[in-house]
């Protein structure tokens, strides 16, 4: 696929030139850190905690372990990433608060969360049915518009390390079938705790119910929710199909994910350490994406074998309903002028 070629070429070019591009361009601005880090402190091992909601064995988890391996190898053991899957370090919002306080923590997040953290324009990237395919997504992340958004987020205390990881196409797993937009109306669908995904599900007629992913299995069992939305690989790895037997292939969000740390922590690293952290994250992202596409097919087949009914829908009626999201005054009143059109242009649509 084109995105693999682009990312592989981009990574090789960045490593050969010894410089970082896109959202990582500010690493060169911190070259003074290399001098200030010389001496005894430079010899101390930097230990970073990498926390995420996904379970062991998922593509994201495999990618994180690859990231940890690459960092330790390329730093000669002077840097170490400790991985904590399955929300072991807490919910995403808690980790973001920790990194804003200066903790050496990394987690994955998306534009929807960044909209709630001081960069409203970032939220549109997680709007329903924004992207038609992955090519549009990668084109956008390589654009000047995206680089500007990353810079704005950095001013809010959050540093994007890499944006080339696929989290997956998001679909709905539910306890009763969804065959049309009408079937979704009023259903309690779990979404992450951010305004973008809450409103994105609401415009499709559902009753969005924010909660941590770690609470979803029990909520399905107890009937607190009727369903939730995640990529197929996450649905299978978490065994959520044991509590809900209908998978509707809505593909309402093409979810690439980004990895972030606190700006203060990032700036405390030497320029060399920053470069290692980012380049290894990009390389691990390519590995994650390869694992994702393999696991997605395997997971879909396994879900069918486990008795899950996989439902194909007419996406056109869902896309049509989703267009109202981009006219919501709640967002347009805080988005910059002409944002939707500028994003579409930047993604080549």
From TrEMBL:
Keyword Metal-binding: no
Signal peptide (from-to): 1-27
Record-level GO BP terms: transmembrane transport
Entry's Gene Ontology cellular component terms: outer membrane-bounded periplasmic space
A Pfam cross-reference name: DctP
Domain of life, per lineage: Bacteria
Any coiled-coil regions, as ranges: none
Keyword annotations: Signal
InterPro entries: DctP_fam, TRAP_DctP, TRAP_DctP_sf
UniProt key word Chloroplast: no
Protein name: TRAP transporter substrate-binding protein DctP
Species: Agathobaculum faecis
Gene (name only): dctP
